[in-house]
Amino acid sequence: MSEWQTFCLKDLVKIFGGSTPPTNNPKNYGNKIRWITAKDLSTLQGRYIKKGSRNISRLGFKSCSTFLLPKHAILFSVRAPIGYTAIISKRSCTDRGLMGLVPNKKIYFEFLYYLLKYHKHNISNMGVGTTFKGISKPALGLFQVKIPPTYYEQQKIARTLSILDQKIENNHKINELLHKILELLYEQYFVRFDFLDENNKPYQTSGGKMKFSKELNRLIPNDFEVKTLGELVDIFSGYSFQSNTYSNNKNDYILITNKNVQHSLVDLSITTNLLFLPKKLPKYCLLEPTNILITLTGHIGRCALVFSKNCILNQRVGVVLPKEKELNPFYYSLIRNPLFSAILQRNAIGSSQQNLSPIDTLKIQIPFNHKIIKQYSKTCENIIKLLVSIMQSTQTLTAIRDFLLPLLLKQQVKPQ
C-alpha cells in the first residue's frame, strides 16, 4: 500500500456550522426542510441518519445561519457531548451543536466517517469551555489526520468496517420488527381482547361476553379479574455504588445506569465498569439475560431487556422480577405498552426531575387471566429469546468492529 499522508481536516472537507431558528415563532418549524440536532444523533442506531425529530420551514431556514448539507456529508457533534458522528442520507441542515463536513475528492465519505469515529476522543480533548466544552470550526479544521493517498485504499478500509456495520444495522432492523410483532400481539390479546377463544375465533369480535370493571374503568372479558402488579411481580431498585469501585477495564462488571436503558435497548456503547462487587450487594442486582429493566428517574418508564452477562443494577433503575418467570414475555410487553406508560407518567412525582416509586408502581391494577397470559407468554417466548440472541450478536460484532478500527487506521492490519 502507498505511504499515508498527513492533512488538516480543512484540506479534506468543507466545514459548515448549524443554527437554530427562533423558537418563539411556530411558523419556523414543520414543513419539508430536514433539520438534525445532536439529540437526534444521541439515539441513532447505525451510521446513516435520514431525518431529525423536527423539520423546519423555508421561513425558519432563512431566519438563521444554518446550511443545507448535501447527501453523504458527515455530521459531528461539537458541543458537550463531543463526538456523535453520522452520515446524512438526504439533504439536511443542522443545529449549532453539529458541524457538517462535506468531503472533497481527496477523501471517501465513509472513510471520513470512520476516521472521525477513531479520533473522537482526541478531538474531544481539544474542547474548551467551563460549563460545557465545545470545539470551534477553526480548531476542528486544524485537526490533523493521516489518510491513504487513494480512494481505492480508503474504500477498502471503509468496506471492511461497513460489512460489520451493515450486519449490526440489519440486527437493529430485525429487533425493531420483532418488537412490532410483540406490540401487535399484545394489543390483540389485552387491548382489543381478541385472543383466540375455545372455537379458535377472536374473543371480543366474535361476541365474547364482557363486563365493566370499576377499578379499570373499562370493559374486560367476563373471566378476567383485576389484580395489582404487586401480586404478580417484584420491582427492586438498584444499588448505590461508591466511586472507588469504578474501573476503566471493559472486562470488569458492567454497571447498568439510567442512561444505559433506552427504549427497548440496553445501550452498552458507553459504560461504567466495576472493579469488585460490595459484600452486601443484593442478589437481584446481579442481572441475567431476559431480565426486564425500567427507568425510575428522569425519562421514567423506559423498558429494556438485559442481554449481556456480568451486568450489575445501579440505583435509579428497577428490575422487574415476575413471581412466575415463564410469564416474563407478558410483563415485558405490558410495561412497553403506551397505555401502561401513560399510567407511569401520571404516577411520577417531582417537578425538576421526575421519579417513579417501585412501591406506587406495584399498586397499578391490570386485567388478569392466568390461562390467557400464559398462552400469550408461550407464544412470545421464542421472540424474546431471539431478541436477546440478536442483541448478543450485535454486541459481539460491535466489539470486533471497535477492535479492527484502530488496527486499520494505524496500518497494523491491511484490508483484503
TrEMBL record:
Classification via Gene3D superfamilies: DNA methylase specificity domains (3.90.220.20)
GO biological process: DNA restriction-modification system
One Pfam family hit: Methylase_S
Keywords, ordered alphabetically: DNA-binding, Restriction system
Coiled-coil regions listed in the entry: none
InterPro entries the record matches: Restrct_endonuc_typeI_TRD, Restrct_endonuc_typeI_TRD_sf, Type-I_RS_S_subunit
An example Gene Ontology molecular-function term: DNA binding
Domain named Type I restriction modification DNA specificity: residues: 1-177, 221-369
Sequence similarity: Belongs to the type-I restriction system S methylase family.
PANTHER family in the record: TYPE I RESTRICTION ENZYME HINDI SPECIFICITY SUBUNIT (PTHR30408:SF13), TYPE-1 RESTRICTION ENZYME ECOKI SPECIFICITY PROTEIN (PTHR30408)
Protein name, as recorded: Type I restriction/modification specificity protein
